[in-house]
## 1
Amino acid sequence: MPVPAPRSTDATSITRNSLGPTHSATVWRTLSFRSTILDYLQQFDLLTWQVSNLTLLPKLKTPFRFPSPAPRSFVHSSINVSGFGCRFTLTVEYKHSIVVKTWDNVSEMIERIVIDGYRRFQRLDLSPIPGLNIVVGDNESGKSTLLEAVSLAFTGRVNGNWASEELNPYWFHQGRVKRFFEDLRAGGATSPPEILIEIYLGEDDEPQRMRGVHNSIGADCPGVSVSIAPSDDFAEEFRLYLADTPPSILPVEFYGIEWRDFADNPLHQRPRELAVSYIDARTIRSTSGVDYHTRAMLTDYLDGKERATISLAHRRSRQLITDETLKGINERIAADESFLHDRSVGLQMDQSSRTSWETGIVPQVDGIPFAMSGQGQQAAMKVALAMSRRHETAFVLIEEPENHLSHTNLTRLLSRIQMLAGDRQQLFVTTHSSFVLNRLGLDRLHLLHDGRTARLTGLDESTVKYFRKLSGYDTLRLVLATKLALVEGPSDAIVLERAYLDATGTHPTDVGIDIVAMGGLTFGRALELCQRLDRSVVVLQDNDGRAPDEVRESVKDFLERGKRELLVSDQSSGTTLEPQLIAINDESLLRKVLGVASNADLNTWMTNNKTESALRILDSPDSIAYPDYISEAIELLK
Amino acid sequence: MNKLTLAVAGGRKTQSIIDRCLAAPRGRRILVVTYTMANQDQLKSRLSRHRPMEATVDVQGWFGFLLSHWVRPYLPKRFPGRRLTGFDFPGDPGRYATGENRFLDQAGRAYKLHLAQLALETDGASSGSVVDRLTNLYDEIHIDEVQDLNGYDLEVLARLMNSTIDLNLVGDVRQAILHTNPQERRHKPYKGLNIKKWFEEQEFAGNLEIEHQATTYRSIQTIADFADGLFDPSLGFAPTVSVNAIATGHDGLFAVATEHARPYLETFDAMCLRRMKTSAKSLELPFRNIGVSKGLESQHVLVAPTDNVTKYLRNGKALEPSAACYLYVAVTRARASIAFVCDRPELLRLPIWTP
C-alpha cells in the first residue's frame, strides 16, 4: 500500500516548514477520534512504519487502545489529549520523516447562550465553561427559565410539546410587552416584542453542517436559534388587531416560530449530535409512565441495534395478539357479518406509531415502575441514565438536584455527578442549595440576578477546596444577599441587628441586609469570594489583641474603600464584643438589660453566655450604647 | 489527491463513483455532486441499494451544493442582513445589474445565472470559512458530469482543489452540452469541449491528476467508431474500444423514412431523441430532448437529425463542436443501433430500414 502523501497544512497547526524538509503534517477534525485514528493507521503499511510519540494524558477517562493484537511496529503508543474540546496529536515516524496528525474537538461545547426577550430575560448573555456549570440565583431569578430555553433551542420543545403548541403571551418579557402597548397607546411607532434564543457552539465543533453566521452577533460557528416574531403571513391581521385598541395581551396566534441552525437551515427535529438530557425537578405521578425528557433520555441510552430489536419484538407480539387471540373473535364477527356490513369487519391491534415501543416501555427501580417509585429515586435514576458513559448526550441539564432527596442521597448523587462530569459532557445544574454549590465547586458558579449573570473567576483553587470541605456552610447567603454584613459569631449578629434597629428604626432583614455569622469560615476566604463576585460587604471583626491595621493587613488585597470594608473593634476596650459593650455602657443599665444580679461578675457572665446576652439585648425595651466600629458598620450598611 | 477521470460515454463513470463510495472505510464522509436531476435521482437510488454503507454518503446537485454549503451559511458576510430564501432558476438580472441585484432577485432568491460567482464572493467575504466548513464536513467530494461546469464554476473547483478535501472529478468532455450559465463570459475560452484545456492546465500546475478511460461497456464498436468520428482528430481523443459484442439482429446505423418512424418505434421500442422541442415538430413520437438524456441508455435509439446533422450524414460536412457534442450524446445512448429519421433516407449513405 502506498504511503499517503501528507497534503496541505493548516495555518493554526504545525506546518510542513516548521518541521523541516523531511517532515510533514496534516490536520483534520472528526466526530469520533477513535475510529478515525484506526482508519488513519490502517492506511500505513505497519510493517515498515512505526508509530511513536503518542502521549496520553490521564484526563481521558476512556483510554485509547490499539486493536488487539497490537501491531508490533508500534514502538510506543498513547494519545495526547488536552482537555475539553481538545486536540489529539499522533506522530508517525518512518525512517527519516515524521508525520504529525492532529484531531480536534471530540466533544461539542456550548460557548455562549444568548436569550433575548424570553420570560424574565431582557437580554442574557452567558458564556458557559467546559464541564460543569452551576447556576444559582434567588427564587424567580430565571434559573429554570435558562434551562428551559436551552432545551427549547436544542429540541424545539417545551414541556415535551412543540413550541408552537405551547406558545403563550407570557413567554414574552413582560416589561417589553408593557412598554409596547404603552407606546402603542401613545401613538408612537414601535416594534412588537420578539423572542430570540441562540446557542453558540465552538467553531470547530460538530455538527459543522450547522455552522454559519446566521446569529445575532455574526459569529462563525455551529449553533441553533429559536426566533419568535410576528409572522409575515398574518401581517395584515396583526395590524388590524393593534389598530383596534387591544388589551395588553400579545396576540400570539399571529406569531411564528422559526427554529434554525446557524447555516440558516430550518430544523424539524432534534439534531442527533446535539442530544440534550433535561432532568427537571418535577416528578411524574401520572399513570402514563414517563415524561418526554425521560423517554428521550431512555431512547438515546439504547443503541440503534437494541432499539431495532425491541421494536421488532414489540411489533411481533402485537401481531401475535391479532393473529391468535383476536382470531376467534374475528371469526365470530365474520359469522355475524350480515348484521354489520357487507364487507369483512374485524379487530386488530393498533400498529401505528402512537403505539410504538417507546410509549410502552418504562424504566423500573427494584421491580417498581418508574412513575411509582419515590421522587428521590426518580431523580437519581434520571441522572444515572443521562450521564452514563455510553450515553450519546453531549449536554445535561439538571434542575435543582436537591429537591426530593435526603441528605445522604443528595451526597451520593452529587459525587456521582462529579465523577461523571468530565471531558465528555457539558453540564448545567441549577440550585438554591449552598450544599450543592459547595460540593460541586464554587469556581463553576454562574450567578443569575435580575436576568444578568456574573461568573466567579480567578478564585484560588485552595478556596474552592476549602468550601468543598465546608460544604454545610451557607455560601449562597454570601452570594445572593442584597447587602451583606459578616460578623464573628451569632452573638455579634444579634447585637448588630438590634443596633441597626435602634439607629434606623427598621429591621435589617426588612431592607435586604443579611447578617451572616462566620461560623467555621475564615474572614479571608469569605472576603476573597466577595471580591471575586464584586459584591460589597461590611466585615466586623474582633481585634483579638491586635491593632486594626494589623488585622486588615492579611486581607488587604480583597478590601476596597466604600465597597468592602473591614471594621475592627478598638484594641484598648477588650478583645471581643462583650468587654467592648461593658466599656462604653453604664453598668447598671447593662445589668438591667441582661438581668444579671450585682453579685455576678458582668464580664464573666457575658463571656460565658454570649448568645443569651445577645438575645436579651435584642429583646430588651431599653437601648444600650454600641462601640464605634458597630456604629460605623451601620452607617456603611444604611 | 485530486483526480479527474475522463471517460467515454458508457464508460461506467457513475458506477466508478459508487464503487469508490462502497470501498471507503468506516467513518469516511463523502459528498457526491452531480449536475442533472436525472443523474442525481439515479445515483441516490443506486446508492440506496447498498445502504447501510461503511462511509456516510450525501448526494447533492451542483446548484444545491453551491446554495447550501457556499451561499446560505455565510450570505450575511457578503450582503449584511440578507438571507437566502430560495433559488431563481429561470430569472435573469440583466447584464448591467450590480451588487445584490446581480445575485438575488426581489424575493431574496439566488439567480442560477450568477450562483457560482455569488458562491465565490461569499467564500471570499467569509475569509475562507466556506471552504473551511466544507473541509470539516467532508473527507472527499466526487463530482460527476464535471464537463458541464463553466465560467465561475471552474474557480469553485479550483478552491476545492486547493483544500484538504480529496476531489474526484468524473466526466466526458465530448458530452459538454449543458452549461450552468450559457451567457457567461468568464473563462469563455474553456467553454464546451475546451474545458479539457483548463483541466490540462490544472494538471500542469500540479493540482490534478488526469486519467483517460476509453473503454465503453455500452455501444457496440460500430456506434463507438461513428461517435469518435464526429470530432476532429486534432482534438486528440483516444479511439474508443467497445467491450459490447452482443448481436441483437438489428445492429449498427440505419436511415428510416419519416412515414416509417412509427412502425420502427413499434418494432424496436427505440428511445426517441431530438435536439429540442422545435426540431422534428411534424413527427408525433415520444421524443426526449438530448440534453436530458444524459446517463440514460437504450438498446435502440431513433434520432431526429437537425439540418446540420443531415448534411454531415450526407456528405461528411464537419459539425461545429457544440453540434458534435449533442450528436455524440444522442448516439452513445444506444447499445445496438441508431436510426436517423428523415424525409429522404436514401441520401444518408446508410442502410435503409423498411417495415
## 2
Amino acid sequence: MLMKALSIMFVMIFTQNYVLVQFLGICPFLGVSKKFDSAIGMSGAVVFVMTLASAATWTIYTYVMVPNNLEYLTTIIFILVIAALVQFVEIFLKRYMPPLYQALGVYLPLITTNCIVLAATILNVDNSYTFLESCVNGFSAGVGFALALVIFCGVRKAVENARPPKCFEGLPITLVAAALTSLTFMSFTGMAEKLFGG
Amino acid sequence: MKKQWQILLNGIFRENPVLILLLGCCSTLAISVTVLGSLGMGAALTFVLVCSNIVISALRKVIPDKIRIPCYIIVVATFVTLVEMVVKAYMQTLYDALGIFLPLIVVNCIVLGRAEMFANKNNMIDSLFDGLGMGIGYTMVLTAMALVRELIGAGSLLGKQIIPEEYTIRILAQTPGGFFMFGCMMALLVWGLDRHGKKFKPEMGCDENGCSNCAMAGSCTSKEKEAAN
C-alpha cells in the first residue's frame, strides 16, 4: 500500500511529470512562471485544488455515477464539480483563512480552466485507482507541477538576461528553454521501474 | 458575405489562434506527433468551436454576466461529450491517439477564449465563421508541426515509413521536440513578419503590459479581481 503510494508519487513528480513530460497545463506554466512569487502562489493553489478535486470526483464517480450508469457523462460532471469546488474553496478561504486567501486568491479562478486538474481526475478513474491512491495521485501531480514551475521560473530568469537572435526574442526562446528543461526530466525515464519494480 | 469571408481569413492567418493569439498550447504540443492525430484533433476542435460559438452567441443576451464562464463551460462540455462518444464508437484508433486530450477540449483556451472574445459580442453567423476560421487555423499549424515531427522524428508520414528508422532524430517526436518545434515555428513567423516590415513579439504571462497580450486573458478573471480590489 505504502509502496504503491510512493510509486505513484515518484512517477507523477518525476517520470511522468504532467507539465514537462505529458504537456498538460502548459498555459499557466508559460504564463505564471515570470515571477517567483506568482509561481509559488499558483503552485500552492494547484496542489490544494488538485488534491481536493481528486477526492471529490472519486467519491462522486464511485458512489453516484457508477451505480446509475452515468460514466459517459464523466467529462461534463467532472468539470462542473471542479468549477463548483474552486468556487467553494474561494469562498471558504475568504471567510475562514484570509492569509491563505491573500496568497492563493488570484490564482484560484484560473484553475478551473487549467487542464491538469481535469486531466488528473479523469486519469484517476481511467486507472481505476482507490480513494487513497486518487488523492495521492492528485497531490503528487500538483507537486510535480509546482516543481516544474519553480525550476522553470529560475531558468526563465537566466534566459531573459540573454540576448538571443532577434526573431527568437520573447516566447520562442522561452519555449526552447522549456525544451531543454523537459530534456532533463527525460533522464528519469525507467527509474520508477528500477526503484519500485513496476 | 464579404465580412464573413474576412472573419474566416482572420482566424486562419491574421489572428491565428496558436501562433498569434498563443492559445491552446497543451494540445498543440502533445498532439502534433502524428499527422493523422493532428487532422483528427483539428476536426474535433473545429466542430466543438463552431457549435459552441453558435450556441453561446445565441444565448449571449440570456447568460448573466457574472456566471458566464461556468455557462460557457457547460455548453462546451456538452459538445465535447458528443464528439467523444462519436469518436469512441466509430474511430477507435483516433480515440487512442488523442487519449486524454479529447475530453480536455473542454478546458481548451481556444474554445473558451473565442467564446469570451468573440461569440458573446457578435451575432450567430459571424460567430460561426469565426469558429470555422479559428478551427482551420489551429488545424493548419498542428498539421504543419506534425509533418516535420513525424517525418524527422519517426521517419514516417501518415503511418508509412519514408526515412529508415536509424536516420531519424527521435527526440523531435518526444516532449522536448514539441517545445523546440513550437519555439522555432514561432521564431520563423516573427522573422517572416519582420521581413515584411511588421512587428510582432510573442509574449505570455502577467507582466507590466497587462492582460492585452496574455493568452489566458480569455478565461482569466484576475483582471476583474484587480479592478474590484
